[in-house]
Amino acid sequence: LPPDHWEALVLVDGSTDERARLDESAFPFPLRALNLARQGEVAARNAGARRFRTAAARGEVLVFLDDDLRVEPGYLAALLAEHAAHPRAVVLAALYPCLLPPKTPLQKYALASEAGRQMGGEVSFVECFSGVMSVSRAGYAEIGGMSPLTGDGRNAWGGLDFGFRAHQSGYRFRRCAAAVAYHDDYALQNLAISCRRWENAAESAPLLFARYPSLSAALPLFETMFPARRGDAPALAVRRILRGWTASRPVLPALTGLAQLFERVAPLPALLFPLYRWSIGAHICRGFRRGLRRQ
Q1: What SS3 class is residue 133?
Q2: Is residue 50 predicted with pLDDT exceeding 50?
C-alpha cells in the first residue's frame, strides 16, 4: 500500500520510559505518536479514533493493532480490499495466537485450539478481537466506540463488547485470510501466567452479562460457569457442579501441577491438551464466580 494512502498513530498509554519516544521522521510513512495519561486500552483506542476524526486525518477506515502483534506484508491492503467489498462490516485479521513455529507445548495448544481464527469469510461477532479489528471511521462512531466496563476505565472484554453492539446495529463480521497477524502473547510464556490472565479477565465477565443479558446465549462456555441452581436441567446441574469442583481449592492446584509435571516429563499433546483445557477452564470459573459474588 503506498505510504500516502495511510498513516499510523502510535498511542502511548502513560509510559514514562524515554525509550518509548519515537522519532516520527525516521519512518518511510506518515507516523505520529500521541502521548496519553494512563487510562487503559479503552480510552486509548477512543482517543486515537477521535484524532482521526480531525481535518488532518483523511482515512476512512480505522485499523487497530496491539503492540504485541506482528503482521505480514500486504496487511493493510488486504483489509481495505475486504472493506471495499463489504462496507458495512467489521473486518478482522487472520490471527495466529503465537509466533511461528510454536516453541512450547502451551503455544502448540493455543495454536490447535484457535485454528479457526485463520479462516476467511463470515464469522460471528463473538470473534471480535479489538487488537486486529478494523472498521469504517463512521461505523466506529455509530457503534459508540469502545466502552469501559470496570471502575478503572478498562474492559478486558472490549472487543466482545464492541462486537455485540456492532451486531445489534446490523454490522456483519468478516475475517480476512489475506491479512495475517501473529500474537506475541506474554500469557503463553507458561501455564501459570495464562491461567492468571484468564482468571482476572473472567472476574469482570458478570459485569458484561449484566450490561447485555442476552449476550450469554452466544457464549456457551459461560453457561457452566454459574453455580448450580434450582430448576437447572439435570445435565446442566451436573456440569456446573463439576466445574465448581475443578475450581475448588484442593483440586485446581492439583490440575495445574499435573499439567506442569507432564510438560517436563512427557509433553504429549494427548495428555497435556486436556489438562490445559481443564486448568484454564477452572481458572475462568474461579474468576467468574468471584465476580458474581462481588456484584
Answers
A1: strand
A2: yes
